[in-house]
Amino acid sequence: MPADLPSRAHAAGMAAITGFDPSVAATAVEDLDRLVLLGIAAELHRATRLGAPGAHPPDPVADDLETAARHRWIVGHWLAALHGAGLVRRDEEGRYHGLHRPSRAELAAARIRMENAGAALGYPGELADMLLRSLRLIPELLRDEVGVQALLYPDGEPATAEAVYRDNMISRYLNLAAAEAVRDLAGRSPRPLRALELGAGIGATTADLLPALAGRPVESYLFTDLSPFFIDVARRRFDAPFLRYGLLDITGELPGRPGGLDLVVAATMAHNAPHAGRLLDQVARLLAPGGRMLLIETVEEHAQSLTTMPPALSPHEGSGPPPRYDERAGTTRTYLTRAEWLGWFARAGLRVEADLPPDGDPLTALSQRLFVATAPMEPS
Fold first, then answer.
1. Residue 91 lies in domain
2. Of 140, 148, 100, 181, residue with least CA distance to 356
3. In terms of pTM, does the model score above 0.90?
4. Rounded distance, CA 32 to CA 16, Å?
5. Neighbours of 81 (CB within 10 A)
6. Less CB within 10 Å around the terminal CB: N or C of the chain?
7. Close Cβ partners of 26 (under 8 Å, ≥ 6 residues apart)
């Protein structure tokens, strides 16, 4: 593989965000996060005992909100985030007190900053609408009366989901950088490519990868997801002759024979795996020598996702967070860190050829990354 793939992929990603100013990323993230934190604080102050004197553990606060059993863990997760942001105090016994009560003026100013931040990051108006709607619907979300899919697909339309996964600065950068890695792989492959995409969702990344395969020999590209809804959307959206579709739960076994794939794509979904190492071990077994995995992942949880990601991940049974068996075990963490992913790639025997954005780039403030990892060639 050409040694300059990381620089070429980075250049392709940057070309996709011409017109945006990455230097604003850190401040914009802070403004998005702050609005969500203040919105959660305002609702907890209004609707729970945290608005009164005294110190309280998370469980009674969850009771005040009439939280559904499967979402009860989220209240403690939110309180920990508020504590980290200095908006509530916590005593040595894990009880919370002194919750900040945002004023209307403070919330209004935070909303303006959030809208400006979204515009700076290239987010369409649908994303700001979703954040505000999720804050207004906190009680319904916690009572499990409204699901996250209703936020992402209001009236069944995909525009909001496109805003989250495709139509913004960091997604454009990562998807087009990934497309360059696919173009490179297809250009040097000695045979028609065999590809598998895991948890492809609405096909936000697929839509940028398919043009990179145009005119190249492709034997098959298996587009998979856990939900029949997304499979149906993809069937209507894409028409490449080599595309195949299938339902797949990544908590089980991945399909295919050992060494049978040249490309595996996992875009913004691998955090759903109960054990990251097990997932990468399976991918490594499926990849042919020189085959490649593209992993796009968030590597740090930001507050802007607190009202959407945790409710989406809650198990349907029990009252705790989704079961995890890697570094996240025993915590409410959603994502692995960059260092943790790099460690699991190494243990799976996959060599990371590109890890983008580069260190020091202002895009790193958005905490989403592209890892391009390659299976070793057969011994000569």
1. 22-121+123-165
2. 181
3. yes
4. 23
5. 21
6. C
7. 362, 365
